[in-house]
Write a structure and sequence with these properties.
Layout lengths: L1 H24 L26 H12 L13 H6 L4 E10 L6 E9 L6 E10 L5 E6 L7 H7 L1 E6 L4 E8 L10 E6 L4 E7 L6
Antiparallel strand pairs: 1-2, 1-8, 2-3, 3-6, 4-5, 4-7, 7-8
Length: about 200
């Protein structure tokens, strides 16, 4: 009886340990690709009863619908004049955090126009995969470790959608871009930096 009890206890211990090991190590062997278009709603005026994300979802759904129209659409010079193209305000290239944690690609903060806010776009992006990676806007231009983030401050935007590809992250309206100097790909469980892009105003 004691033998069976010990076997049962051993199984109860091994299962969660094996699951934890898989959760921590499996991302190192898995590539998650995400390829998002530039936000469809960058020219939209957000109604009071909707969020920017809801507008984006509605426009994405409408983009997949075919709706034939026989009559010509009238010109609207006033509406066209009110639209503004997204403006890149900050940009930088990702670099390796160390010999094992590597990253490349471009990080760009865009001003989407009045009432549309700002978005962080990662393009031609690739980073070493890892467990529970997050996208941070950091106040330090060249953070090398967690202590630099704690000392200078940072804002977490979201979990990383994929370690390869182009993707968008909304920037909350209360974030002061004057204080933002880098984008950090950060492993939350181990508090490790995987890649950093120092942000500067675009040249020219």
């Amino acid at each position: 009886m004691l033998r069976y009890l010990l076997v049962g206890i051993g199984i109860l211990i091994v299962i969660p340990v094996a699951w934890l090991a898989w959760w921590l190590l499996s991302p190192l062997f898995i590539t998650m690709e995400v390829h998002e278009e530039f936000p469809l709603a960058h020219r939209a005026v957000v109604p009071d009863n909707m969020t920017m994300a809801e507008v984006e979802d509605a426009m994405a759904a409408a983009a997949n619908l075919e709706r034939p129209v026989d009559e010509a659409m009238p010109d609207s010079p006033g509406a066209a004049a009110s639209q503004t193209e997204p403006q890149a305000t900050l940009t930088g290239e990702f670099r390796d955090a160390d010999a094992f944690h590597k990253g490349s690609g471009t990080a760009t903060v865009y001003n989407l126009g009045p009432d549309a806010g700002h978005v962080l776009r990662l393009e031609d992006f690739r980073v070493t995969n890892g467990p529970d990676l997050r996208v941070l806007l950091a106040n330090a231009p060249f953070p090398e470790g967690h202590s630099d983030l704690d000392d200078d401050g940072y804002v977490e935007l979201d979990k990383l959608k994929g370690n390869v590809g182009s993707q968008n992250y909304d920037i909350p309206p209360d974030v002061s871009l004057a204080d933002v100097h880098s984008v950090v790909i950060y492993c939350h469980p181990f508090r490790v930096l995987f890649s950093v892009a120092t942000l500067e105003p675009p040249s020219g």
